[in-house]
Write a structure and sequence with these properties.
With 448 residues, this protein is an alpha/beta fold. 32% of the residues lie in helices and 22% in strands. The chain contains 13 helices and 16 strands. Strands 7-6-8-9-10-13-14-15-16 form a nine-stranded mixed beta sheet, with helices on both faces. Helix 4 links the parallel strand 3 and strand 4. Helix 2 crosses helix 10, helix 2 runs parallel beside helix 12 and helix 5 packs across helix 6.
């Protein structure tokens, strides 16, 4: 196994941190260093790593620059950040957590790949850690992780929304189908936990392997449905949403939707609703448009998805993130520009969570300063984060609960005619979720 640093790299890294500290001591205020743990590069032994840092990292530069230019937020201090590149390796993430602490950072923004072990280390050192990426349920326990907060909603949040839908329609028994990919295991665990807590019986679960591409690969849902439909009426499905068309069209071909006895509730994990292309949710990945079969099938479907950002604010945010991605210290060139196309990268939702994480720290540190408290005291700092609300880079208000978890904003989508496109159908918003409350368009509320 490769070590995280050579001796030369470690020395250079620590020297950079110490020089920052020296500059702080000779200035009028103090430099509060943030350690940004991210993965923007890949190694030869992991070439498939998707390098999310390359499409989100500009958000930390944007946030730090805005805060430093704001005389009403940490007026006596200056924020700076150092980048800790993990290459998608959880071992690197752990080592960087230790080295950033040893280098004197005021807080860690991250980590990215994993967070439970890193959060435990941070709590041992009383170091504030605010993650923009971590969905793991375990770190919500503030007795074990008293210095950890996050701006990315945990997998519990979307699970609570699913429970609210099921309770709203008095569906008290479901069968769960899920993609076997590691990415969805935490979601599956959260769904099992929340549905059981809400007295919704899970009669069983089955999985499919690999990525299903409609019309190109064998349909795994044929066998899954044939094995389960006799004792099932409501399916909850967890995977890539474009895979769900295999389930929906097979159930339609089999005639299961005709009598209205069967229904599917799908989780759109780590996705934000795109109001510009509602038709994409009822077609396969490589289908040019929805066909008649899929349109009929999706009459028996609800989806739970992250709420759409507020436009045009989010467009301006995306533009700024793209500009900072190409600037130091990241210098991630836009591949479209290299090929002569004048188009930005499509940034991931985690860019907004990253921006929010920096602001969450800065506002808590500001409150600590007002009370002559140490902005590095993680346990104390969390009291200025829990049970607070902020305006996210998404454009809407987000609440931080008693576990220092950001509450998700989710939307319920169902088949409907697309506005201004007569005769064209797609999945359109029909309800929303405020914390753990389901709100229909008729404003009926159901506790989740």
């Amino acid at each position: 196994m490769k070590t995280a640093f050579s001796t030369t790299r470690l020395s250079a890294f620590l020297l950079k941190l110490l020089l920052t500290e020296l500059l702080a001591n000779i200035s009028h205020g103090e430099v509060l260093k943030l350690g940004y743990i991210t993965g923007g590069e890949s190694r030869s032994d992991n070439p498939s790593y998707d390098r999310p840092g390359r499409v989100i990292s500009g958000a930390i530069t944007l946030a730090v620059n805005e805060i430093n230019s704001n005389p009403g937020l940490l007026p006596e201090d200056t924020l700076e950040f150092v980048v800790a590149e993990t290459f998608g390796d959880s071992t690197e993430s752990l080592k960087y957590t230790a080295e950033l602490w040893a280098g004197g950072v005021a807080a860690i923004i991250g980590p990215q790949e994993t967070c439970t072990c890193e959060a435990k280390l941070a709590s041992a050192w009383n170091l504030p850690m605010i993650s923009y990426f971590c969905p793991e349920i375990e770190v919500s326990n503030k007795h074990r992780f008293p210095t950890f907060a996050r701006t990315r909603p945990s997998d519990v949040q979307i699970s609570k929304s699913v429970a609210s839908v099921l309770k709203h329609f008095n569906w008290d028994s479901v069968y769960v189908l899920h993609n076997a990919n590691e990415r969805f295991k935490e979601v599956l665990n959260a769904v099992n936990r929340i549905l059981t807590k809400n007295r919704i019986q899970i009669t069983g679960s089955k999985s499919w392997d690999g990525l299903y591409l409609h019309g190109l690969t064998p349909n795994p849902f044929v066998q899954l449905v044939d094995q389960t439909y006799h004792d099932t009426r409501i399916y909850v499905v967890i995977g890539e949403p474009h895979e769900y068309i295999g389930l929906m069209t097979y159930m339609e071909k089999k005639g299961l939707f005709y009598g209205g006895e069967y229904f599917v509730v799908g989780l759109h994990v780590d996705q934000l609703y795109d109001p510009k292309h509602p038709e994409q949710y009822i077609q396969g990945l490589f289908m040019p448009s929805p066909d008649v079969l899929s349109t009929r099938a999706y009459k028996s479907y609800f989806g739970v998805i992250g709420s759409s950002p507020v436009y045009p604010e989010y467009e301006a945010f995306s533009t700024a993130v793209n500009d900072y991605l190409e600037a130091p210290p990241f210098n991630f060139l836009n591949p479209f520009k290299a090929r002569g196309f004048n188009r930005p990268k499509i940034i991931r939702p985690e860019a907004a969570y990253l921006y929010d994480a920096v602001y969450l720290y800065a506002k808590a540190a500001h409150e600590a300063r007002k009370n002559n408290e140490d902005p590095r005291d993680g346990r104390n700092l969390l009291k200025y984060m829990v049970d607070t609300s902020y305006k996210s880079a998404m454009g809407y208000i987000v609440h931080i609960d008693k576990n220092a978890d950001a509450q998700g904003n989710f939307t319920l989508i169902a088949l409907a005619e697309i506005p201004h496109k007569p005769g064209e159908l797609g999945l359109m918003p029909v309800g929303g979720f405020q914390q753990v409350v389901f709100v229909t368009k008729e404003n009926e509320k159901v506790t989740g």
